[in-house]
Amino acid sequence: MTDELKHLDVFRTQVRDWLSANLPPDWKSAMLGASEEEHVAFQKSWFRKLRDGGYVAPHWPVEWGGAGLSFAHQIVLYEEIARAGAPRLVLYFISLYHAPATLLEWGTDAQRRRHLPAILSGDEIWCQGFSEPNAGSDLASLRTKAERRGDRYVVNGQKIWSSNAHHARYCLLLARTDSAAPKHKGISYFILDLETPGVTRRPIRQMTGGAHFNELFLDDVEIPAENLVGGENNGWAVAQATLSSERGLTILELTERLRIAFGLLLSDAQRPAPWGGRLIEDDEIRRNLVEIHTRIEALRALVTNMLSRVLDGTGVGTEPSIIKVYYSELLQDFTELGVRMGGMDAQYLQPILMGGGYETAYWMHDHLYSWSWTIAGGSNEVQRNIIAERALDLPREPKVRAGG
Asked: Cβ(159)–Cβ(172) under 8 Å?
């Protein structure tokens, strides 16, 4: 065994021991059916515990309060957090990944000094203001405008699908600053204080009963010019740093959680079947379980291959798009099987496990929520276009002309 592998094994043991000592054993029962306020309070408490243990920002540079861990160590950490069944820090995802990735690469020293320590304190929650009602999959078609007036920009427009914006203080905002420029060239990137006059936040009630997403309405909102990130009309390039941050490790964690949750499906399959015997004795159920298990292991192989390419610096190409499509459709089929095995009982309204992820064994909620994964982060239709054009070298999809 090489020295590097020995160090990783030691680190894995340290993480396991820390989680064993610090993971609240009753967190699932406490968060089952919890109110929004209770969930936020718990998320903040778990954030502080992870931070004090040195595990909340392992990817951040040490000079900004992070652990400065190697990518290999981060892989180990994500695996162990998922395997321990720890709650996901859904409230802080943008704060811990998108905001620092953007500021560390494109922000000014003043912006980094102002926001990075505040994020690590747990006091600053961030959201993202990219998508719009008519610019979701085609983000570059956004219409929100920012007009320079002296030392400020005046912003007008609307954003949608902003996760946790109703709890956030700051927003990573894209707005058009040059309407005459090609659509990718006239966009700028801003830090928006959501307590600025003219900002209205409206939670969007989902079919699961939750309100994770929000609409943002911006009416003559003034943003100081010092909150511009990366220079005027350079927002598209800045946004790429935001969108590419943490994709690999996020999908690794989700894959590990899916692998563990397969045991919940097996447990459900031991239940009595309405037609007699046990569900596991039904040929179709057995085939479905084998298929799901095989697809999970195939997903794990895809993710492992992608992370290996990141580690050796060979680049990942269209693998993130392939994995995103594969995972989202697998998650739908996984949770649908859970609903089907639950029979009529699974159709009843059940409490939500707040912070529990996407495969909590409350299958109807999980299945309804799984459909968001075919849209979030770029719809599967867009991902397939990326795969077709960049990996398979197929012709670009023709543009639809107005009026025809």
From this structure: no
Of 158, 214, 170, the C-alpha closest to 36 is 214
Q: Does domain 126-234 have CATH number 2.40.110.10?
A: yes
Sign of CA dihedral 32, 376, 141, 177: positive
Element (H, E) at 20: helix 3-22
CATH domain 246-391 topology: Butyryl-CoA Dehydrogenase, subunit A; domain 3 (1.20.140)
Residues 24-42: tens digit of each pLDDT: 999 999 999 999 999 999 9
Domain boundary assignment for the chain: 3-88, 126-234, 246-391
Please say if 246 is a catalytic residue: yes
How far is residue 19's CA from residue 2's CA, in Å, rounded to a whole number? 26
Residues 6+ apart with CB under 8 A from 75: 249, 252, 307
- 246, 253, 256, 359: which one is catalytic? 246
Query: Class for domain 3-88, per CATH?
Result: mainly alpha
Going by C-alpha positions, the residue among 338, 390, 329, 399 that lies closest to residue 364 is 338
Residue 158, amino acid: Q
Mean pLDDT of 256-279: 90
